[in-house]
Design a protein that fits this description.
Blueprint lengths: L3 H31 L2 H27 L19 H29 L2 H31 L3 H11 L8
């Protein structure tokens, strides 16, 4: 059993996770459009991960006898200045999601909701990974600069990412 307040907060988190998926799908589209198939693949895997995050929250609400409420998903931006701008935005977005997850933990603690707090531990750890991955790519891309050869090398490397991996 979860409180109505917690149910609403988790439903809002479902919306944020699906928006994250949408944002990364938009980035995948532009990467592929620019010819960076590897970056596109990385963002497509990220898109799938975000949907799986949304589904974890979806299942949790149902397991707790709550009601899932799906709201409209905001349209993501469809143009980005460069691959670096996309990864910088992805990193910033993950920091925003981390804050949101931490807000849920704060609410769970305030309500003495041990079950939700326990479920959220996975997400707290996951956000550390999510931020680290995006930040690492931003650092590498910044080091490479606008060099075509360097970007193509990184494109090949990131294109090896598989769903279910890191
Ligand atoms: Fe679901 Fe990237 O946080």
């Amino acid at each position: 059993m979860i409180s109505k307040k917690m149910e609403k907060a988790i439903n809002e988190q479902i919306n944020k996770e699906i928006y994250s998926a949408y944002l990364y799908l938009a980035m995948a589209a532009q990467c592929e459009n620019l010819g960076f198939k590897g970056f596109g693949k990385w963002f497509k895997v990220q898109y799938q991960e975000e949907l799986s995050h949304a589904m974890k929250f979806f299942d949790y609400i149902n397991d707790q006898g709550g009601r899932v409420e799906l709201a409209a998903i905001k349209q993501p931006p469809m143009t980005f200045k460069s691959p670096l701008a996309m990864f910088e935005q992805a990193y910033k977005h993950e920091q925003y999601v981390t804050q949101s997850i931490h807000g849920l933990v704060d609410l769970a603690v305030k309500e003495g909701d041990h079950a939700t707090n326990s479920m959220l531990k996975w997400f707290v750890d996951e956000q550390v990974e999510e931020e680290a991955h995006a930040s690492e790519i931003v650092t590498q891309m910044s080091m490479i600069g606008p060099s075509g050869a360097g970007l193509l090398y990184l494109d090949g490397k990131l294109g090896k990412r598989e769903a279910g991996g890191d």
